[in-house]
Amino acid sequence: MVLIDKFNRTIDLLEIAVSRSCQYGCAHCRTTKDQQDKELFSTRNILSFIGLMAKLGLKRVRLIGGEPLLRPDIMELVHGLVSVNPSLSVSLATNGKLLESFASELADERLCKIFVTLPTLDPTLFKSITGHSEIEEIMGNLERAISHNALPITIKMALLPGVNDHEIEPMIDWAVDRGLDLYLIETKSPAPYPDGAENILLNRLQKRYQMSRITGAAISNNPWKLEGSETKIKIITRTGRCECKSCNRMWLTPDGILSLCHELSFALDLNDLFENNPTEAEIAEFAMKIALNKPAGIQDFELTKT
């Protein structure tokens, strides 16, 4: 079964912010340093919802934050998600500070991907971006976690024009040496790339690296292969994240609010659904509201709730 909205888009990806807390205070991130988790949407309810959604066609779940590994029952949640449906792909994003502590448990769960956010390899710049001077600890944790071959680690580098984009090539070389894939992510910086991040970065990188496009998915999802290495690079632009006509995702907040659009304040409250112990049929009926109410995009302000 497939969940298709009224604009004929297949909805098959859910990003779950499982924690508000984070040890860092990166200016480009929506999370505030040391923000505390209060009322978290329960793991039990998350698993009930995901189990039914997987039957309706949900294919991928990404655990994000905050810092997901700060959630007290994170491994219970991870284990439940990878067990709830064999066709469900589960990935997790982390800043890496706690990765070594969870490496063995995460390896046992066979996640699809573990995204490690790393803005720079330079200690001074790392402190400037994150507010912490712990890069040696982070890198040590990461190196030891990489040694767990069962951990499918991918590096995510948030690009801050004029701040850390001169570090792209050193980051690529570091990733190549370790056989890791790398995502270069254009942030919502007040000083964006003037003519489109992808073209600018590709023109720059192709002067140094031999790159070929890997095909098979939507063009925005096709990474670049660095010839002579195991590394693939994906460039994620600001505009690419807002390709409304092909949007296939939803977002769940730590307190159980299901957002149907990343740019518009339009959401459904899962707390209202679960306060009366819903049946599978009632959860399925709620899922249909997702398909009916997901807006076309940032130009679609005439929304009708059902």
| Overall residue-averaged pLDDT value | 87
Q: Strand arrangement, largest sheet?
A: 7-8-9-6-5-4-3-2-1-10-11-12
Structural class: alpha/beta
CATH architecture designation: Alpha-Beta Barrel
3D shape: globular
Largest sheet: 12 strands, mixed
Tally of structural domains: 1
Cα-based radius of gyration, to the nearest Å: 19 Å
Strand residue percentage? 15-25%
CATH topology (level 3) name? TIM Barrel
| Number of contiguous helices | 9
- What is the string of helix and strand elements? EHEHEHEHHEHEHEEEEEEHH
Keywords: Iron, Iron-sulfur, Metal-binding, Molybdenum cofactor biosynthesis, S-adenosyl-L-methionine
Protein name: Radical SAM core domain-containing protein
Domain Radical SAM core: 6-218
Pfam families: Radical_SAM
Keywords, separated by commas or semicolons:
306 residues, alpha/beta, TIM Barrel, twelve-stranded mixed β-sheet
Short description:
The chain has nine helices and twelve strands. The protein is of the alpha/beta class. The longest helix has 14 residues, at 280-293.
Description:
- InterPro entries: Aldolase_TIM, MoCo_biosynth_MoaA/MoaC, rSAM, rSAM_sf.
- It holds the Pfam family Radical_SAM.
- With 306 residues, this protein is α/β, with parallel strands linked by helices.
- The chain has a single domain (13-293), classed as Aldolase class I (TIM Barrel).
- Helices cover 31% and strands 18% of the residues.
- The chain has nine helices and twelve strands.
- It has a twelve-stranded mixed β-sheet with strand order 7-8-9-6-5-4-3-2-1-10-11-12.
- Strand 3 (89-94), helix 3 (99-109) and strand 4 form a beta-alpha-beta unit.
- Helix 1 runs parallel beside helix 2.
- The two termini are 22 Å apart.
- 32% of the residues are buried.
- Mean pLDDT is 87; it is low at 301-306.
